[in-house]
């Protein structure tokens, strides 16, 4: 990708070139030139961090998960997330990645009583709590985190 360049404007202008808004490198790592650095919120973080990980991001509407077990998956800044309606009626958002081997436990949208990893069949409740991990009884793996991280 081309390195972002400033537009042809007076030196006192705060404008940046079009490539600043379309560059994957700027999105992931932020601008590298002195002119671009003054536009970044955090020198060490990319725009992805600055935009998506500082504030709330709307990932679904309440009516998109109307019934218990209804879910939809979304990707926010490279993080797969499940938004699900719990049995209590509350809406819960959590990581969509299995704690064991980092496989997605759901994709798209639908209705489920549980979520299950297709790789080693680890099963999770709608709230992300680990229910079962076949062939892992008595191992250290189950002594670690047992719930998918809420987001």
Task: Explain the overall architecture.
There is one protein chain. With about 150 residues, the chain is of the alpha+beta class. It has two domains: about 1-55, no CATH class; about 60-145, Rieske Iron-sulfur Protein (3-layer Sandwich), CATH 2.102.10. The chain is about 15% helix and about 20% strand. It is built from four helices and seven strands. It has a four-stranded antiparallel beta sheet with strand order 3-2-1-4, with no helix packed on it. Strands 5-6-7 form a three-stranded antiparallel beta sheet, with no helix packed on it. The chain starts with 18 loop residues before the first helix and ends in a 19-residue tail after the last strand. Mean pLDDT is about 80; it is low at about 35-45.
CATH homology superfamily of the largest domain? Rieske [2Fe-2S] iron-sulphur domain
Structural class: alpha+beta
- Could you tell me the CATH topology label of the largest domain: Rieske Iron-sulfur Protein
Terminal residue distance: 32 Å
Succession of helices and strands: HHHHEEEEEEE
- CATH class descriptor name of the largest domain: Mainly Beta
In percent terms, what proportion of residues is strand?
Answer: 15-25%
Taking all residues together, what is the mean pLDDT? 79
Helix content range of the residues, please? Answer: 10-25%
Which architecture name of the largest domain does CATH use? 3-layer Sandwich
């Amino acid at each position: 990708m081309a390195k972002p360049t400033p537009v042809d404007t007076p030196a006192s202008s705060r404008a940046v070139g079009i490539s600043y808004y379309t560059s994957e490198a700027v999105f992931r790592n932020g601008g590298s030139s002195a002119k671009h650095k003054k536009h970044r919120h955090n020198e060490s973080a990319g725009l992805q961090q600055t935009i998506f990980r500082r504030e709330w991001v709307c990932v679904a509407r309440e009516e998109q998960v109307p019934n218990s077990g209804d879910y939809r998956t979304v990707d926010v800044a490279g993080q797969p997330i499940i938004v699900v309606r719990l049995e209590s009626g509350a809406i819960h958002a959590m990581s969509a990645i299995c704690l064991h081997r980092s496989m997605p436990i759901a994709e798209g949208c639908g209705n489920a009583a549980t979520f299950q990893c297709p790789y080693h069949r680890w099963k999770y409740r709608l709230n992300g709590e680990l229910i079962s991990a076949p062939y892992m009884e008595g191992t250290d793996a189950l002594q670690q985190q047992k719930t998918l991280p809420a987001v």
